[in-house]
Amino acid sequence: MMRSPTKRSRSLPRSRRPRPEARQYPAVIAWSAHDDCFVASVPALRGCMSHGSTPEEAAHNILEAARGWLQTARRKGLPIPPPPRGMSGRMLVRIPRTLHEDVTRRAELDGVSLNQWVTAALAEKVAR
Predict the structure, then answer these.
(1) Residue 113 falls inside a structural domain
(2) Which residue from 5, 73, 82, 116 puts its CA 20 to 30 A from 43's CA?
(3) What is the CATH number of the domain that holds 104?
(4) What DSSP element (H or E) covers 6?
């Protein structure tokens, strides 16, 4: 029976375990009217944030920030949280049509996709 890479890495000495890469950590990107730009963060990497004038620029910048965060943590010997796993990142939610219309309108006013708007709203609620 083959063991999964995750289980195998637990049995290896710390120095031989696979090192997490920045791309393994999901980022949240949302428009910030206060900052007048797209703000990005990696929730699993405390304090890892960046921004950009477009969602694409924010995505590029947060990837670089996550790489820097991981590099600094390794250099200082700080603990690095494992990348999140187990969830696909997809979710189907049934909501009333009127609520769907309202959030769609808000996303358009904020200049972001419906997916980005709902993701930011959920992240804000979870952070409280």
Answers:
(1) yes
(2) 5
(3) 3.30.160.250
(4) helix 5-11
Residue 57, in any domain of the structure:
yes
User: Residue written as tokens 């969830």?
Assistant: 87
Helix, strand, coil % over all residues of the chain, rounded to 5 = 50, 10, 40
Q: Taking the alpha carbons of 43, 44, 47, 48 in that order, is the dihedral positive or negative?
A: negative
pLDDT at 17: 61
pTM for this model (two decimals): 0.56
| Tokens (6 digits) for 108 | 């358009």
Q: Within a domain: residue 5?
A: no
At position 82, the amino acid (one-letter code) is P
3-state secondary structure of 72: helix
* Residue 13 maps to a domain: no
Q: For the segment 65-122, what is each residue's pLDDT rounded down to a tens digit?
A: 999 999 999 999 999 999 887 677 888 899 999 999 999 999 999 999 999 999 999 9
Rounded CA gap, 70 and 63, in Å? 11
Cα–Cα separations (whole angstroms), residue 17 to 26, 77, 98:
21, 15, 50
Residue 60 structural domain: 23-81+92-127
What angle separates helix 97-110 from helix 114-127, to the nearest 10 degrees? 100
